[in-house]
């Protein structure tokens, strides 16, 4: 019948979360597949241009370590993007957790597993603060996390007087320097395990489903029995935990807890990689849809590009400009892809 | 036959096709000078498509439009306005922080980006148009400080100031109180007497009969009647034109529920939203209709029962026991209440998600195993029977709900409550934007549901729907109860009784 | 009286006066000519930064690239004088044009693709910053001509720095733009209700691009002014502008969703931030705490703005 012609105006999602026939055109147009193709392509290209140095065990190892951090910071942002919001404070929260860790192992002499847990707990607490203020005030997460980024970082700098903690227990920093099978870093393993847990969360748990529902349309979710406020706070707490883990990975990699690990200014440096992963991976900024694998692949692609460019001795100063350009290109391509799909009603 | 010189606006043989759907076919309409012309049609009859064509959102595939006898075409809403089609939409289209004067004159500013604005001149000019409407308003007042009714009048002033030949009013009384509607109608009559030509789109037949002098009815994408004078057309005639047959009140057996246990009891309930002394009882297997005009507070009451708004006075009893519903989650999971929202696209469904996700959302908690573990398959097994029972037409359960037709969307928004096995289902305006077949289907469904024991509270401003379904009708006005009636199924008597209760309350 | 209280500038003005009185009472050197000069210098640069963001808040968007554009303009300004030997006015003009161009790039991407301003300016911020780093290789340009250094640091009429003059001109122009010129009204209209603005014949696309162009221009001016004040072409100029660029407009009652900003109140917001920052230094409070204070100020300001909006919505007056 006539129904509503206008009802087809669904915001074309980046990729259907449901499995689909491998051979269909839709599959080949998904984000994840596209990213895999790009990764393979660039890997081959870099391999050729660097005469195989790209594939050396050491380079793969280095790549893995950096990728692990990019993946994790992408996850930290992704879990908040799902709610339709932003968490500008990922860097600040991560640094706070890392400095707490450093303090506890160096000054309080705690064993590093305990200190790590404490760091993550702090991340969760900071995330709770963000979530609580956002939910209670009804204000946009942009401005709240902009303010909290400043507050968290400021308090941290004040307490630590901008001093670093360099006496990291060898047991912990071993994670950063250890090599499994000569090219895989345990840090990367951590990231992959986190990815698996997140996939499990969104696919197979009630909490994950509620997060997606609340992020897609809070009013409808609420009237269907989802405690939207509580769920949003959980998302921010999760973001805090993931930011903390990210920071701990950096500490493991560098062997020290440095206040400027996420940049001199409030942890801003983490913002670009934090968004690149999810955006490349097809997680909608409007919320309600997530692609854990996509975020991971996106982060891997970014890391690979940076690594390859550095290997090719394209000055490190150009890398940042290139990454910015990459984000631009990525969103443009995604836009084109989605409008193509919407046009063909394939979604 | 109107003089050609009096023909302000015409649509001749207009058609519009969408992939697989003939939205409009050979539709015509003729507006003369100094008239209020009603545009009627059931949801799905093509009314909204025609409006979109007239206002320039779409272009017609066939046929033409004429303004003052000259063929015109426009490919954007802007061009339509420039051609003389003035529109006052349902939603307000004003800049909230700007003044009345600036809003009215906003068009004229857009000529030059860098020419300084003379606010004195703007306000003086705006004042002229406000005077035409008899509005005593300071043009410097920010629009955000006005009531919705006044904002609407400002938009009418704006449309007139743009020398519109036709003024299209889309559901103008949707958010007005009775007093404001009266004031608006006085104004429209005055404009008509001064020669303005208006196209009045509404689904409220009482209003159409009160104010319009001509009518065009659409049905199934075609003209059921074309620009007929209203004289001599009664309500039943209009209805017959709209649905092709007389209103059928289904011949259901009257049911007596006096012995049944009460599922929901509201005793002297008040809320911070303004409700006072609400007494309401819904028994097992009963359908209680809650009637009221826009702004009566029915949806707000429903949401208070569902735990979204607090209840500050009185008692709510569920199956006899007093309860305090602390949250919507509690209402749904602990007390087995359900609510089909009137706004299905924003509140009833998650358009971005799949059929399965939407249908199962109310039972995720129930189905989850230890630690919150839950698979798609478990949900499917639980929800599938209900989706199938409602005969939802969807290619797969993974289909995004946003891609379904309005009727199927509504079915999903009901299915999720069936899956949850609710004891009390509150249904809010179930047939808005639904085609006739689905509407009839939903009515049957609600009747069956209540026969099986579910208590139903039906909120609707559709009188025929109310009288068809309800066993008892409660009337609400201005956040208070105006009275209740037992449904005798005699349409004329019931509608009169209901309107009396409303008018009595209004007069009080 | 109550109408005055409801304006955007009343609160900040009251706070400003109160702060001056209290701080002046506790530490008289606060009101010394030297201190006033320092304050004014900070205010002139920060005002430009705040306006660069304010104009984008007006259309309901955000510009994360304000700092990056300012930094790029700053090093370009210095570099052009040092390496190409251009005269300061010419170099300043070219730097301003760079800012204008950068803003137009932002605006075009946002207006044409429809992608959120957040993502676009996040991307362009990295590109501009990257170009900055590539040109400077993270090393400052030291070759700032004496005339520029003087302009940035000398005064006339007692404690009034020369920099105040261009800043005052910008202030007046901005006020005029947003209150008397159609372009400014279009910017506010698009921010207030984009759909309605479009229906009234306003080209949303052109308005967005114009707003971003102005933003880039103001950011560039801030960068140039900062070079004059610091007497060095630092590549890190702009890195710490993000919080400040939002704090002042927000304290000045700006609505982040767009459609309502106040030039005067934003300036007062800049003044408040400058005063508080200075006070922290005067009272020997750890300068690291400035960040915390800024963050709290933002929270407080948005909280109040929100409370005001809710109150207005609740008591929707029926005239």
Structural commentary:
The complex is a heterotrimer of chains A (347), B (508) and C (319). With 347 residues, chain A is an all-alpha fold. Chain A has a single domain, classed as ABC transporter involved in vitamin B12 uptake, BtuC (Orthogonal Bundle), CATH 1.10.3470. Chain A contains 14 helices and no strands. With 508 residues, chain B is α/β, with parallel strands linked by helices. Helices cover 36% and strands 24% of the residues of chain B. In chain B, the strands form 4 sheets. A 6-stranded mixed β-sheet of chain B has the order 6-7-8-3-9-10. Chain B has a 6-stranded mixed β-sheet with strand order 16-17-18-13-19-20, with helices on both faces. A 4-stranded antiparallel β-sheet of chain B has the order 2-1-4-5, covered by helices on one side. In chain B, helix 5 packs across helix 6 and helix 15 crosses helix 16. The longest helix of chain B has 17 residues. Chain B is globular, with a radius of gyration of 25 Å. The two termini of chain B are 46 Å apart. Chain C contains 14 helices and 2 strands; from the N terminus they run H-H-H-H-H-H-H-E-E-H-H-H-H-H-H-H. Chain C has a two-stranded antiparallel ribbon. The two termini of chain C are 20 Å apart. Chains A and C meet through helix 6, helix 12 and helix 14 of A and helix 6, helix 12 and helix 14 of C.
Give the low-confidence spans of chain C. Answer: none
Total beta strand runs of chain B: 20
Largest sheet of chain C: 2 strands, antiparallel
Beta-strand percent range of chain C: under 5%
Strand order of the largest sheet of chain B: 6-7-8-3-9-10
> What is the distance, rounded to the nearest whole angstrom, between the alpha carbons of the first and last residues of chain C?
20 Å
Question: Helix fraction of chain C?
Answer: over 70%
Query: Using only CA atoms, what is the Rg of chain C?
Result: 20 Å
Overall geometry of chain B comes to: globular
The geometry of chain C reads as globular
Report on the biggest sheet of chain B: 6 strands, mixed
**If helices are DSSP runs of H or I spanning 4 or more residues, what is the number of helices of chain B?**
19
Subunit arrangement of the protein: heterotrimer
């Amino acid at each position: 019948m006539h129904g509503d012609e206008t009802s087809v105006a669904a915001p074309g999602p980046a990729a259907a979360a449901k499995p689909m026939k491998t051979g269909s055109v839709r599959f080949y147009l998904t984000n994840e597949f596209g990213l895999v193709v790009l990764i393979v392509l660039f890997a081959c290209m870099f391999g050729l241009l660097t005469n195989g140095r790209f594939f050396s065990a050491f380079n793969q190892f280095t790549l893995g370590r950096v990728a692990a951090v990019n993946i994790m910071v992408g996850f930290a942002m992704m879990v908040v993007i799902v709610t339709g919001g932003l968490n500008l404070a990922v860097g600040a929260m991560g640094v706070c957790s890392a400095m707490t860790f450093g303090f506890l192992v160096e000054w309080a002499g705690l064993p590093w597993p305990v200190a790590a847990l404490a760091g993550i707990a702090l991340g969760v607490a900071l995330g709770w603060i963000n979530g609580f203020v956002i939910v209670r005030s009804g204000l946009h997460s942009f401005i709240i996390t902009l303010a909290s980024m400043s507050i968290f970082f400021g308090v941290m700098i004040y307490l630590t007087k901008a001093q670093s903690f360099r006496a990291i227990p060898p047991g912990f920093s071993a994670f950063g320097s250890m090599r499994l099978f000569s090219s895989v870093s345990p840090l990367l393993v951590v990231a992959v395990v986190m990815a698996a847990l997140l996939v499990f969360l969104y696919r197979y748990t009630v909490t994950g489903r509620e997060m997606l529902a609340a992020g897609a349309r809070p009013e409808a979710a609420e009237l269907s029995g989802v405690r939207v406020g509580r769920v949003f706070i959980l998302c921010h707490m999760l973001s805090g935990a993931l930011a903390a883990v990210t920071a701990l990975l950096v500490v493991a990699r560098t062997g020290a807890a440095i206040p400027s690990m996420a940049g001199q200014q409030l942890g801003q440096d983490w913002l670009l990689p934090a968004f690149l992963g999810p955006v490349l991976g097809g997680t909608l900024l409007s919320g309600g849809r997530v692609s854990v694998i996509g975020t991971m692949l996106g982060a891997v692609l970014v890391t690979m590009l940076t690594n390859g460019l550095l290997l090719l001795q394209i000055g490190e100063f150009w890398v940042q400009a290139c990454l910015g350009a990459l984000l631009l290109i990525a969103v443009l391509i995604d836009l084109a892809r989605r409008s193509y799909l919407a046009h063909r009603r394939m979604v | 036959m109107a003089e050609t010189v009096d023909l302000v606006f015409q649509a001749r043989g207009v058609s519009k096709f969408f992939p697989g759907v003939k939205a409009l076919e050979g539709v015509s309409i003729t507006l003369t000078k100094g008239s209020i012309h009603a545009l009627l049609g059931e949801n799905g009859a093509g009314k909204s498509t025609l409006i979109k064509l007239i206002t320039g959102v779409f272009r017609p595939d066939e046929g033409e439009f004429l303004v003052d006898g000259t063929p015109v075409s426009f490919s954007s809403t802007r061009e339509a306005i420039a051609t003389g089609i003035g529109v006052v939409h349902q939603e307000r289209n004003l800049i909230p922080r700007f003044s009345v004067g600036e809003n009215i004159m906003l068009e004229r500013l857009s000529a030059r980006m860098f020419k300084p604005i003379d606010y004195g001149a703007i306000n003086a000019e705006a004042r002229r148009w406000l005077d035409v409407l008899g509005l005593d308003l300071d043009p410097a007042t920010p629009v955000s400080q006005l009531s919705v009714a006044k904002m609407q009048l400002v938009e009418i002033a704006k449309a007139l100031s743009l020398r519109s030949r036709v003024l299209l009013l889309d559901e103008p009384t949707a958010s007005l109180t009775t007093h404001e509607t009266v004031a608006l109608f006085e104004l429209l009559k005055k404009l008509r007497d001064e020669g303005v030509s208006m196209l009045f789109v509404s689904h409220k037949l009482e209003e159409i009969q009160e104010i319009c002098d001509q009518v065009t009815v659409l049905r199934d994408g075609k003209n059921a009647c074309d620009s007929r004078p209203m004289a001599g057309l009664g309500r039943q005639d209009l209805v017959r034109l709209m649905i092709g047959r007389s209103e059928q009140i289904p011949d259901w057996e009257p049911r007596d529920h006096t012995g049944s246990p009460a599922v929901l009891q509201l005793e002297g309930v008040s809320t911070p939203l303004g409700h006072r002394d609400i007494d309401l009882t819904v028994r097992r297997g009963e359908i209680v209709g809650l009637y009221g005009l826009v702004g009566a507070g029915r949806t707000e009451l429903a949401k208070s029962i569902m735990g979204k708004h607090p209840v500050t006075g009185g008692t709510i009893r569920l199956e006899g026991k007093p309860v305090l519903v602390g949250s919507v989650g509690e209402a749904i999971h602990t007390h087995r209440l359900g609510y089909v929202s009137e706004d299905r696209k924003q509140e009833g469904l998650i358009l971005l998600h799949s059929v399965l996700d939407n249908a199962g959302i109310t039972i995720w908690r129930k189905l989850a195993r230890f630690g919150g573990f839950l698979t798609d398959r478990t949900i499917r097994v639980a929800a599938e029977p209900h989706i199938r029972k409602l005969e939802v037409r969807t290619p797969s359960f993974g289909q995004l709900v946003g891609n379904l037709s309005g009727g199927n969307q509504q079915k999903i928004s009901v299915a999720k409550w069936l899956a949850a096995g609710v004891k009390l289902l509150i249904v809010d305006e179930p047939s808005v934007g639904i085609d006739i077949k689905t509407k009839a289907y939903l009515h049957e469904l609600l009747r069956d549901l209540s026969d099986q024991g579910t208590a139903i509270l039906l909120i609707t401003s559709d009188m025929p729907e109310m009288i068809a379904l309800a066993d008892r009708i409660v009337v609400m006005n201005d956040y208070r109860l105006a009275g209740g009636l037992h449904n005798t199924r005699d349409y004329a008597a019931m509608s009169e009784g209901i309107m009396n209760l409303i008018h009595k309350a209004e007069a009080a | 009286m109550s109408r005055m209280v409801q304006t955007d500038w009343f609160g900040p003005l009251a706070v400003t006066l109160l702060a001056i009185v209290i701080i002046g009472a506790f530490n008289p050197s606060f009101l010394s000519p030297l201190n006033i000069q320092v304050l004014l210098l900070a205010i002139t640069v920060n005002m430009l930064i705040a306006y660069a963001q304010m104009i984008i808040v007006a259309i309901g968007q955000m510009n994360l690239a304000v700092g990056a554009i300012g930094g790029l303009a700053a090093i370009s300004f210095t570099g052009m004088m040092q390496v190409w030997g251009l005269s300061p006015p010419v170099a300043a003009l070219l730097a301003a044009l760079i800012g204008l161009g950068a803003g137009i790039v932002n605006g075009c991407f946002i207006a044409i693709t429809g992608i959120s301003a957040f993502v676009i300016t996040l991307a362009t911020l990295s590109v501009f910053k990257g170009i900055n780093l590539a040109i400077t290789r993270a090393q400052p340009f030291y070759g700032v001509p004496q005339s520029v250094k003087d302009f940035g640091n000398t005064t006339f009429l007692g404690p009034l720095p020369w920099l105040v003059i261009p800043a005052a001109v910008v202030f007046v122009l901005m006020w005029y733009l947003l209150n008397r010129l159609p372009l400014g009204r279009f910017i506010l209209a698009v921010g207030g209700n984009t759909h309605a603005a479009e229906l009234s014949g306003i080209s949303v696309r052109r308005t967005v691009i114009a707003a971003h162009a102005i933003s880039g221009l103001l950011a560039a001016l801030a960068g140039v002014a900062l070079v004059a004040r610091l007497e060095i072409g630092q590549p890190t100029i702009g890195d710490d502008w993000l919080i400040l660029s939002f704090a002042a407009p927000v304290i000045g009652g700006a609505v982040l969703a767009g459609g309502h900003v106040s030039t005067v109140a934003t300036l007062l917001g800049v003044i408040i931030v400058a005063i508080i920052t200075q006070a922290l230094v005067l009272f020997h409070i750890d300068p690291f705490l400035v960040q915390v204070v800024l963050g709290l100020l933002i929270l407080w300001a948005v909280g109040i703005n929100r409370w005001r909006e809710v109150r207005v919505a609740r008591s929707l007056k029926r005239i």
